[in-house]
Amino acid sequence: MKRKIFAIFAFAAILASALAGCSHGRPAARETQAETERAAVITDAPASAETPASAETPAESETEPPSGKGGTIVVYFSRTGHTKPVAEYVAEELGADIYEIEARVPYTDDDIRYFTDCRADREQNDPSARPEIAGELPDLSGYGAVYLGYPIWHGQAPRIICTFLESVDLSGKTVIPFCTSGSSPIGSSASDLHALTPGAEWLDGRRFEIGASREEVVRWLETVNVNEGP
Ligand SMILES: Cc1cc2nc3c(=O)[nH]c(=O)nc-3n(C[C@H](O)[C@H](O)[C@H](O)COP(=O)(O)O)c2cc1C
Fold it and tell me: Ligand 1 center to residue 182 CA distance, Å?
């Protein structure tokens, strides 16, 4: 009899510990899935192409390459990685697509050692400089709003932003610029770009400090008033 009672207790203990293990396992699994989805939103086709269609992944359109379905796209250039997280916060908060402008000839560390007559210095000193963009440009036809992020280079947007703006059609779209910098304000960096985008409406831009938090970005987004049209 004693042996029987002991066996019942032992079974109950094993069952309890198995259940506890399950309940710890579930959130971890959810986190892994959330991380996968976040990565797919931020990046692009390769990650999404491998994501199976299922009821567990409702944000399927977010995993496709930028195509205009979301209505809003974040386009950014970031050589040293400070503008990138701001762009990602914007895209994540708005559920927008995102496109990174990359130079066909990447900027080396020497290229951006400013005040040394480096490549970036020379480009910024030459209003006609148009560094080539690597890869394909996004199809912007379905987007109404374009958030445009860049670092301040000698008080201006890097010339590769001019290359981008002259390579796409932004007429009828709203452009919302933002930048990061060591200390300079956004100044005229955005308004100097207006002439390159006939028919586009530009909203006031916003400068963020290096290391700006998601909360700061969210507070800014709450003030942005994109006219959705009729
Ligand atoms: C060529 C060059 C010029 C720069 N000029 C300025 C400037 O005029 N004012 C400023 O505050 N920061 C300036 N910076 C610093 C960058 O704006 C700052 O580090 C920015 O956050 C970099 O963004 P990224 O990491 O996304 O490329 C300059 C940086 C480089 C490489």
Answer: 6
User: Is residue 64 very low, low, confident or very high in pLDDT (cuts 50, 70, 90)?
Assistant: low
Question: How does pLDDT run across 83-118, given as a tens digit for each residue?
Answer: 999 999 999 999 999 999 999 999 999 999 999 999
The maximal CA–CA distance of the chain, rounded, in angstroms, is: 94
Count structural domains, the chain.
2
> Do 76 and 28 share a domain, yes or no?
no
Q: Whose CA is nearest to atom 30 of ligand 1?
A: 153
pLDDT digits (tens, 9 = 90+) for 65-80: 465 544 999 999 999 9
- The domain in which residue 30 lies consists of 2-48
Residue type, 3: R
- Same domain, residue pair 138 and 32: no
In a domain, 199, yes or no: yes
Residue 49 CA, ligand 1 centroid: distance in Å: 35
State the closest ligand 1 atom to the C-alpha of 183, by its place in the atom list counted from 1: 11
- To test the pocket of ligand 1, the residue of 88, 111, 154, 206 to mutate (highest count of ligand atoms within 8 Å of its CB) is 154
Residues 25 and 77 in one domain: no
